[in-house]
Amino acid sequence: MHCKIALYFSLGVLFYVLLLNAGSLTTFYIFYLLLGLSVLLTALIFRTMRRNGVAVKSKYWNKILFQLSFNLQGNNAYVWGKNHNESHHLYTNIEAVILMY
Q1: What residue numbers bound the domain in which 28 lies?
Q2: SS in 3 state form for 27-59?
Q3: What is the pLDDT averaged over residues 5-23?
Q4: Which residue pairs, CB below 8 angstroms and at least 24 apart, start in 49-54?
Q5: Which of 35, 56, 67, 89 is a Cys-bridge partner for 77, taking CB atoms 3.0 to 4.6 Å apart?
Q6: Are the C-beta atoms of 55 and 1 separated by less than 8 Å?
Q7: Is 28 inside a domain boundary?
Q8: Half-sphere exposure at residue 68, Cβ-oriented, CA atoms within 13 angstroms
Q9: 41-93: per-residue pLDDT in tens?
Q10: DSSP class of residue 1?
């Protein structure tokens, strides 16, 4: 897991540095797209790992990694978590509620 975390963050930093040092407009757009994909991949992977509690052993560091990766994507981690839990996980594994629908 630690290698995966380091790899994804490193890719984001690498593409950002390459983007800033692009020599032509074409390479700028290529690094721009790769940066966007790497940030999106980082956010999706960390969101899943953090929600499953497997990114790291510490709950504190899981929370920090989740917020960092989510906020780098341009979303607010707190608002997403609140909306996601209230709309999707409010009645998880409650049979009576499932049968009402």
Answers
A1: 2-75
A2: HHHHHHHHHHHHHHHHHHHHHHHHHHCCCCCCH
A3: 89
A4: 49/1, 54/1
A5: 67
A6: yes
A7: yes
A8: 14
A9: 877 777 666 666 666 777 788 778 777 777 777 778 788 777 766 666 666 66
A10: -
Structurally, the chain folds into a number of domains equal to 1
Q: Which residues fall within 8 angstroms of residue 35, CB to CB, at 6 or more apart?
A: 12, 15, 16, 19
Could you list the beta-strand ranges (E) of the chain: none
Answer yes or no: are the C-beta atoms of 12 and 39 closer than 8 Å: yes
Under 8 Å between Cβ of 47 and 69: yes
Nearest to 75 by CA among 7, 83, 59: 83
- Closest to 35 (Cα-Cα) out of 1, 73, 3: 73
**Amino acid at residue number 101:** Y
